[in-house]
């Protein structure tokens, strides 16, 4: 079952970007350099502060500019509501 989930998440990255304002923990964890704890931190941050752009990921402890740059093509930040 885990293999199927990994294949699905990998395919979703190939065909569409991960929206950091709406993605769930599994989708966020599929981002290179982002594990479950950082995914949880992203979700916690966006609950209080909507991401206006992907560059704001550097506001999450443990996520730096290199991680953002490495994943820029696979990330998006939908409009804040």
From TrEMBL:
Question: Would you indicate the residue range of the signal peptide?
Answer: 1-17
The record's InterPro entries line, in alphabetical order, gives: Competence_ComEA_HhH, Endo/Exo/Phosphatase_dom_1, Hlx-hairpin-Hlx_DNA-bd_motif, RuvA_2-like
Q: Which SUPFAM superfamilies match?
A: RuvA domain 2-like
- Which GO terms are recorded in the biological process aspect for this UniProt protein? DNA repair; protein secretion by the type II secretion system
Q: Which GO terms describe its cellular component?
A: type II protein secretion system complex
Q: Which Gene3D superfamilies match?
A: Photosystem II 12 kDa extrinsic protein
Q: Which UniProt keywords apply?
A: Signal
Gene Ontology MF, one = DNA binding
Fetch the SMART domains from UniProt. HhH1
**Chain ranges of the Helix-hairpin-helix DNA-binding motif class domain:** 26-45, 55-74
Q: What is this protein called?
A: Helix-hairpin-helix domain-containing protein
Q: Which organism is it from?
A: Candidatus Sulfurimonas baltica
The top of its lineage is: Bacteria, Pseudomonadati, Campylobacterota, Epsilonproteobacteria, Campylobacterales
